[in-house]
Amino acid sequence: MSRYSVAILGASGLVGQRLQELLHSHPFFEVVAIAGSPRNVGLMFDEIEWRLESKRPNYDILICSMSDIPDVDIAFSALPSNVAEIVEPSLVARGIHVFSNASAFRRIAGIPLVIPEVNPDAMSTYEGHACATNCTVVPVVTPIIGLKKLGIKSVTIHTRQALSGGGWKLLFDEDANSGNVNPFIPGEEEKLIAELKLLLDLEIPVLASCNRVPEKDGHFVSCGVEVSRDTTVEEVRELMNLPTLDLPSSPSEVNMIIDDSPNRDEHLWNGDGMATTVGNIRVQGNIIRFDALSHNTIRGAAGGVILLAEFAVQESYITK
Question: Does 104 have pLDDT greater than 90?
């Protein structure tokens, strides 16, 4: 298969650089342009500050402006919402397929919000513009979606979200890394609840408490799910065992289920960062409790939107 030409929107942010890392030598996609903010325009790729611990990929590319993005097949957006609101629709109007991590177009009618293993049918409304979810939704919904067979009545969520979820400035803030971080994340609870209900296609009570913690990467969640009948740990584990997809970015297991509670040191990079690790599952009658961990800048952001584009290619939503 000939590869699709790609532009990455975002040169120096954490998600933009994860996209640059993960798309290098991708079997489906060939990066031909990287668009950045005015301070980066005109720099060669190797001249921008690299913010990830991984080795910088090798692109012989000049950083272009948002107004000079060439006629590529696909654009992956890691733009702030206020910029995305202007740039992304203009690219779609040019016939470019846009897959976005920006929150600006989530929950907008006609623009699907999709995790391919969770709600693939949502792509039926796709017309050139699709969004990945909030990064905190992933470790909540991938374990919960299978529990719909038990009749979900309510959900409670408590999160401990890493610094990288707040961007590179927070990640490199010495005070935040030493523990002096404001645990409150404005607007996060509302986004998590709204997107979870959309992905589950259920209107149920959801209570969420979202907190920032002094960890570099990884969003950890503790969830409680009330279902319509009594169940067992064995049944819950079976229902949480989602089938994976045969795509380049697919992990061997969507949910890697363990006995103990997951931790960042051992489980953050399961499935090359694309798997959710689920553990400490407890059942009392019709109440299910579990902990889960996923890599927020990989599965929750860059890798998630790449997987979505791979799915769009596989299902012929994008064709040459």
Answer: no
